[in-house]
Amino acid sequence: MFKIEPDRSQYPAHNPDGSCDIDLSSGKYVKIWHGPNHPGITGNMSLELTICGDEVVEGRTRVGYLHRGFEKLMERRTFIQVFPIVCRVCVPEPDLNEYCYAAAIEELAGIEVPDYANWMRTLILEMGRFNSYMMYLGGQSGSLGMGVIGQWTTYVRDLMLDRFEELTGARVYHMFILPGGVRDVLPDGFAARMEETLKTAERYLDDVDKVMFQNAVFNKRTRGVGYIDPALFDSYGVTGPTARAGGATTDVRRDAPYLKYDELDFEPVTGTDSDIWARADVRRRDTRLSIDLIRQILVKMQKPGEYFAKIPNVLHWKIPYGETYIRGESSRGEYGYYLVTDGTGYPRRINVRGPSYTHAMALLERLIVNTNISDVGALMVSLHTYPPEIER
Amino acid sequence: MSFEWIQIPYALLTLLIVFVYGVFMTTIIRKMGARAGGRYGIRLYQTFVDLAKNYALRSHISHGIMFYLGPVFRLTGGVGLILFVPTIYGSVMHQNFAFAGDLVLALYFVFFGTLGMALGAGESGHPYSAVGITRGLSQMTAAELPFVLAVFAVSLQYQTLSITEIVAAQQGGFLSWTLFTNPIAVVAAMIGFLGTMMRSPFDVFLAPQEIPIGPPTEFHSAYLALMQTNRILFPIAKIVIYMNLFFGGATNWPVFFLKVFLIYLVSALVGVVFPRFRVEQSIRFFLIWGLPLGILSILIV
Amino acid sequence: MRDVLSPFTAWKHLFREPVTVLDPLNDRPGADRYRGFHQNDLEKCIGCGTCEVICQNAAIDMVPVSDPEDGDSGLRPMIDYGRCCWCALCVDVCMTGSLTMSNDYVWADANPDVFRFTPGVDPKPWNEEEKGYQRPGARVLASTERVHMGERTAKDRIDNFEEIVAGYTREEAMIEADRCVECGLCVATCPAHMDIPDYIKAIREQDYDKGLQLLYQTNPFSEVCGRVCTHNCETACAARHDGDPIAIRWLKRHITDEVPYERYVDLIGKPEAATGRKVAIVGSGPAGLTTAYDLARMGHKVVVYEARKSPGGMPRYGIPEYRLPYDMLDRDIDVIRAMGVEIVCNTRIGEDITMETLRADNDAVVLSIGLHLGRSTRIPGAESPDVDTAVPLLRKITDGEEVPVPEKLVVIGGGNVAMDIARSMARLQQVKHGKVGVTVTALESFDHFLADADEVRESREEGIEIFDARGPQEIVTFKSGKRKGRVKGLRTWLCDSIFDDQGRFNPHYDESDELVHPADMVIEAIGQAADVSILGKDLTEALEWTRGRIRVDVDGQTSEPWLWSAGDCVNGPDVVHAVADGHRVAQSINAMLAAKEEAAT
Amino acid sequence: MRALYDRLKDRFQLGELTRQRPDLGFVTVGRDHLRALLVELKDVEGFTHLVLFTAVDWLEDGQFQLTYLLNNRATAQDLGVRLMIPREGASMDTIHDLWPTAETYQRELYEMFGIDFPGSPRVDEDFILEGWTDLPPNRRDFDTKEYSEATFAERAGRESHDPRDHMKQKLYPDGE
Questions:
Q1: Range among A39-48, A50-59, B205-214, C486-495 rated most confident
Q2: Do B210 and A40 touch (CB under 8 A)?
Q3: Chain D residue whose CA is closest to C194
Q4: CATH number, span D2-154
Q5: Which of A30, A221, A376 shows the shortest C-beta gap to B275?
Q6: Do chains D and C touch (3 or more CB pairs under 8 A)?
Q7: In the predicted model, is pLDDT for residue A1 greater than 50?
Q8: Does the first or last residue of chain B, that is N or C, have fewer Cβ atoms within 10 Å of its Cβ?
């Protein structure tokens, strides 16, 4: 009833390359900047939107607000000096960077990492994934004006940060996964405190289910909105929960198990609708999966053992020529480090493959056309993008 | 009804009481929202501090006369509403400037501020303001419909356009409140109420995550403070009308405080736990749920 | 309908205790492992600057805090918290474990300059904080274990004088060289100030030519020092605080092993053009030959006079061949000869040629005669024919002369010379009798032993008995019979302290703890003296003396303007010290000659 | 991986296969065969997922290495296709019609390495560096340290000492 379809007849036609010629002086269109200083944007990026009425005619992702030239910086640093930098490519889930970088170095230098360190790394990656999802759930509901979820998830995330803090000595950038292993063993009583945190998290997630996912208005705003055709997944490099929400079963943890994932019991979480709701739902269930995995890991981890392999003196560590690519499953999708070494003490090239790179650029620019500007925030949050991955 | 000069200081006193109460209630409602999110929330005096700070600030940025007058109009709407609505039934001091046809004037004041705001914000030339105003006005109109219909129903029911008389008719036990004598009108009115309280799910015209801040985007310093003042006063004024029309009014301050708080609470209870509708979704909501109920209530009467 | 009502369940949080922290500045200490502001234990810190090197963001400056001393540069890290990224690599790499991080992380100040301070020096509330990040376990970013040096087993080596130490292979040397952090603290401690970090780096880069050039810039006795140097550098090595020091001496030897000997002279380069000045040097030990090498490279004509058959001094006549093969010494000497130094052997000053002649024929004379006279304990029985001192005995062994090899002998002394003679005699015993019967009695306890730990260990492996803290009291001789006057044994008392309260040498004995070590022969190895009789009466009287040694200034010049003295005879026994002396004297002479040249023109 | 290589080797004149891991290989191809190879890999061999596309600057050899990393989801295998192009006037054929997302990669390569992709949408539009006039910054010959020293001021009053030189200065200032 009262279905209002916008009149799109007066929109400009798209050119073959996706652009369209917009005559701003015609007065039909308004160009607005969605970001970078904008609560509906995840991080420092912006969308340059051309709107006609309430609808987006053309959207362009603009990045460059925080470009720190990480990849270039890494080329100037020795292999160990790169280690503190990599985590800074992604704030909410920095650990995967540390893992991918360390694993790439270890592969090219031929270092065997102790078993215990691998368990520890798996644990940390799942904790990081959990944190990232917590941030996402708050952001997704917040993008639609429901702040209370964000406050809960921030609290739960904070509890997990407490666990991170006691384990790694830092809250945000943990810098715990060194090339060669990890920095330390679990502190005493960690498993018990973690269980407590997980229980609290589950209680809050139950609340989130009731308040966010069983919410008439939330459903109304997200069901059928932001649909991504699964046929586009490979063309646009769509991976991770975003792809799984469209029925794809791509999960690096299952497809190409790294660390200890082949010893853990889990199935990738998938959805069917490929809309904002499905993506939120997949991530919500993936959060529960992470909780389950953390429990499994803590049970399966053996008693503290060797946690650091013998590595050469890091001050003049040279790695012979080689190139490799290490991938891992981040909370946003496939994350990877492409490392090229040339026999010197410095990397020749490090390229970070962040899922946001493909999601937030070409894909988002395509999805955003003909959406209502009210949905732009929710849509972009639903892709779960972190701008630093675009502009390393 | 004769005019007495003494009514002016009395009315100002009313205004002061309502303002202070409004400040605290704003604070308390915010604290409740914070509690729901697991936070302590702001300190009790924080709203005063914010206001004082903003009033102290001056700006060099100008967007023209109308830009400055916008907040003034907005505040006038709030103050005017208070002044022409009897706050405490039966109290000479807090009768304000109530007169026989004040209901119509009140309805006008409810809309007056929004219009003034629209003019002022439009003058700022910011696209977000423009988008916000378009949305705000269309949604406000849609939200007013069930409310106005409910008011008609009530005035038909009591056969008067004087708020005081409507309140008088509701005296004598809570069962004589409109809430119980004409529940459908109250439901319709409450739907409209939610739509005008600038809270989720009907706050898309402010929508920080979508079109940052909406109409007030360009407002700052003392202008912002004026608008904040209005945002404190205006809901109370509106609630006073609702209280008088539907919930039996108030015969003394404690009852007033309690009733206003409870009615305010309705919007907060809903606002905290729901995300917001898109503008056309909310208009559709008012048209589908509010409008028929409003018409129904008139028909019943 | 459920979807409309369900969200209201959020309100159940309304009356729950909020979860936020009311006073985050005070109520929330960091976790036990938190990486907060740095702490530095100034006593432990040696100012090696490794933290500065590893800091990826150049947040650390090394600033002077105290005076430098051996193994401590006196510098301490100052941290710029505007750049610190709290990665704690500096803590992980810290060579001593002095640098740690407290769990204090809250500190606000309006002045940005206060966020740059020297931990441990500037008073901060967290300086005493126990909690925080400490490197767990051992240092992991650089290896703490020295690469094992291959050596021949006691069984293989006891019946011959072949070199014991195998030397590193390239792989081993690479691993050992990799451990170096290039702090350079060792350079100051090395008497010759060799460019240790640089030549170790040359090994890492497999650039042995460069390594050799670096060695010979500061030490013409690199072959010798690569084997028998006292390696003071290793006591200053930053790595020793948390693991084994770098095997600097073995790495030096490794470079000389790796470069083909034919290339030495080419790599070192030609001397400068001849100046026509002449210098005579008395004694062809490390001090004399280093002086000769330097002066020759500066273009001066140098003649070295040596009393014995072969040049080399103490390294040849004092150090047994199993530690330093003579052809290695010859290689060093041949390099020196290749620089144009003339070495005249079998020429004893005072007999074959006098000091006066040397003085007359040369622009300067250097006296580097070493310490070739053995000292005696002068305890009762020391005059027995079966009592000898170590140095002359070692010399005889080198020259292949006959020495008495009894089945049982005692060595008095705990220094390296004692070990040398004990082990040399043990080898001779093994050859002659098929078994070892050597006892060493040292005045010092093992805690303060003078000889290298390696020497002690190897001696024991070879079957030598070592008694510590024994003060020799009497050499017991047969009082009658066929062997009257011959040695029967050595009587010792336990020595409970060597120095008195003023720090003077004044051993105190516990007479109740007496031992008699049976022996057919006693060798005294308690010190050496210089043979100054060659100077002649006039010169001896003319020179100034201090405690039995010729007094020299910092440049090695004696009170006579034409005479310099260097090496053991002025500074006590130490090869690398002698080399350093040689450099100093050569510099001084060169300066004098240059001044002379200038005055002449 | 080996079987795949053998199938394609002669048709596309592939260079040696570097097997970094059982599931990751790198292979070099000539410019003429690149597009055909990518199409074959994508449409026939199941390498449908363009994992990443980037460049490596071999300044000393005067060449850029372009790396197209493709993933076969079904077999969980990765193949990195390497292509060397001269640094001077670097230019390469666009592949945005095979993978639309390559448009972004090509914009970045244009900006960061100065590699042109004629025909790629908005390839010359600013990507990250608005108003950048210096060398493309990811080229090896762009010196970030030099740039930052020329552009930004150091914090005043910072001075460090090398332990070795400091000790030399204090303990034996005259040299040997």
A1: C486-495
A2: yes
A3: D176
A4: 3.30.460.80
A5: A221
A6: yes
A7: no
A8: N
